[in-house]
Amino acid sequence: MYDAIFKVVIFGDAGCGKTTLAKRFITELYLPGLHMTIGVDFETKDLKIDGSRVKLMIWDFGGEERFRFIFPRYISGAKGGILMYDITEDSSFVHLSDWLTVMNGAREQMPILLIGGKLDLEVIREISYEEGKRVAKSMGLDGFIECSSKTGENVEECFKILTKLMLDRIR
């Protein structure tokens, strides 16, 4: 028996690490060489947060431009979102507002975290932590964190933060 079941969507540009993040969270393993997501991929994981049993249904949305037109249909019923970019790739950061525009108003219905991925590549970083945090705030998002799917740093924390935000909305 679950206290809550939440649909979570992960979205952002192709190649920014969405699938690797989802797989690392689900399996607790770094799985290099994952193939590009075509359309959407789906995973589930159970969490215990502050005494609540929660099932997350994680929808990993393909980031290629050609899939964006179907995104609004896939976010229907979502209770939380992860908008992701690659800290080493300026173009993935520049497109953040494009992704929020595609949501067609759904962003007001759920908490959304901005996540900067590939923190293990700090030495070739293009987007500063401060810039990521500033943009999350300016876009009215519900939080900001950086993570590394390769090392596991902050991966579980990303999902715990989002789950707490979703739980707060139903309490």
Give a description of the structure.
It is a single chain. The protein has 171 residues and is of the alpha/beta class. It has a single domain, classed as Rossmann fold, CATH 3.40.50. It has helices at 18-27, 71-74, 90-94, 96-102, 129-138, 155-170, and strands at residues 4-12, 40-49, 52-61, 80-86, 112-117, 143-146. Strands 2-3-1-4-5-6 form a 6-stranded mixed beta sheet, with helices on both faces. Helix 5 links the parallel strand 5 and strand 6. The chain is globular, with a radius of gyration of 15 Å. The mean pLDDT is 90.
Per-chain topology:
Layout lengths: L3 E9 L5 H10 L12 E10 L2 E10 L9 H4 L5 E7 L3 H5 L1 H7 L9 E6 L11 H10 L4 E4 L8 H16 L1
Parallel strand pairs: 1-3, 1-4, 4-5, 5-6
Antiparallel strand pairs: 2-3
Any idea what the CATH architecture is? 3-Layer(aba) Sandwich
Total number of domains: 1
- Principal-axis shape equals globular
Provide the CATH topology.
Rossmann fold
Spatial strand order of the main sheet: 2-3-1-4-5-6
Please tally the helical runs, counting DSSP H or I stretches of 4 or more residues: 6
Compute the separation of the termini in Å. Answer: 17 Å
Q: What is the percentage of strand-forming residues?
A: 25-35%
Largest sheet: 6 strands, mixed
In round numbers, the mean pLDDT is 90
The helix-and-strand class reads alpha/beta
Whole-angstrom Rg: 15 Å
Q: Helical residue percent?
A: 25-40%
* Subunit organisation of the chains: single chain
